[in-house]
Amino acid sequence: MIIPDAKDWTWVLERPCSDCGLNASGVVREDVAGMVRANAASWVTLLAGDPAELRHRPQPDVWSPLEYACHVRDVFRIFDLRLALMLTQDDPTFPNWDQDETAVAERYGEQDPAVVGPELAAAAEQLAAAFDQVSGSRWSRTGLRSDGARFTVETFARYLIHDPVHHLYDVTGTRP
Q: Which residues have a Cβ under 8 Å from the Cβ of 3 and sit 6 or more positions away?
């Protein structure tokens, strides 16, 4: 049984993550698109492994590599939608997304890694391409998470990149 993560991870915008080592506040905003693509490539390589191993949870309360990959795919999809809202609406509030509920409802652990890999790569490319189009004052556009956390497109990009980097660390133990 996975215990839902109720942490507010916005602190990664202020200091390096002691687990994965990423210093999101030091990420150059224009580098995020490339970082998304590189991260996705690592996941695709990982998902080419043995499906039984990819479905194996290292502990009952820790997601399997496949479950993490499904989550990262969906993070890329959700953040692409949120970025579009920020770029097309004034100060939008993002719809809530319960990642733990999604993992159960979408049966992450039962999905096919051979399908998840290309889906993750496509979602990453779509998001990266959207970030590639951001320039000038558009980096300052704002949006709000449903809990009230406010982001600019720039802080949103830095906050985003921590998630897939951290989860790749969760699975591989390799720091960026």
A: 61
Q: What is the pLDDT of residues 93-135, one digit of tens each?
A: 998 888 889 999 999 999 999 999 999 999 999 999 999 999 9
Do 29 and 128 touch, CB atoms closer than 8 A?
Answer: no
The answer to whether residues 61 and 1 touch, using CB atoms and an 8 Å cutoff, is yes
Q: Reduced to 3 states, what is the DSSP secondary structure of residue 141? A: coil
Distance CA 65, CA 113 (A): 10
Tokens of 148: 């009230």
Q: Where are the alpha helices (DSSP H) in the chain?
A: 32-47, 51-55, 65-88, 99-105, 113-132, 153-172
Q: How many CB atoms lie within 10 A of CB 163?
A: 21
Q: Whose structure tokens read 């951001």?
A: 134
Number of residues written out for the chain: 176
pLDDT at 81 over 70: yes
